[in-house]
Automatic annotation (TrEMBL):
Organism listed in the record: Capra hircus (Goat)
Matches recorded under CDD domains: TFP_LU_ECD_LYPD6B
Organism lineage: Eukaryota, Metazoa, Chordata, Craniata, Vertebrata
Chief place where the protein resides: membrane
The protein's name: LY6/PLAUR domain containing 6B
Keywords tagged on the record: Cell membrane, Disulfide bond, Glycoprotein, GPI-anchor, Lipoprotein, Membrane, Signal, Transmembrane, Transmembrane helix
Membrane topology: Lipid-anchor; GPI-anchor
Name of the gene: LYPD6B
Subcellular location: Cell membrane
Segments passing through the bilayer: 15-35
PANTHER family for this protein: LY6/PLAUR DOMAIN-CONTAINING PROTEIN 6, LY6_PLAUR DOMAIN-CONTAINING PROTEIN 6B
Amino acid sequence: QGLEFQRVLDFPTPGVRMLLLCHVLTVAVVQTFIFSENRVFAKNINFYNVRPPLDPTPFPNSFKCFTCENAGDNYNCNRWAEDKWCPQNTQYCLTVHHFTSHGRSISITKKCASRSECHFVGCHHSQDSEHTECRSCCEGMICNVELPTNHTNAVFAVMHAQRTSGSGVPVLYLPVLAWAFVLPLI
């Protein structure tokens, strides 16, 4: 009787086998759909929300920054920023934010900057005026969207690696991999 019970566990009935197969196929189809949908959506997302410039670049690796001088708030600074290429002797976008102890912006300056202008990033509180100045620098096309407000975001953000068009495992192979696991069960 124990041997027959073991055979039942080793070889499920055709109904149980069909149920397991349907479950595995359903999971594989759903995963294939999810992976393929994510791949399509990821291709269409503009992560920086910045359109490529229509005018040709003036020199290799050229870029633009939001630029304003003593703006009252970040919205108006970004909204009315000049749309021009940074000079060739600059590599970064600098943001200088002056604000009260209650967090109200006093002035915002954004511009293209050289490496030497980016050495003094961080926040500094002035005892005399009770105001705080936070400075940040970043690398990349119009990267200075946000304002530095504390030591966490008042940093010198530099890209360390070149972006490539592909990843280690193409998404296209994931459905094939799923089928490789399903076929032995059939």
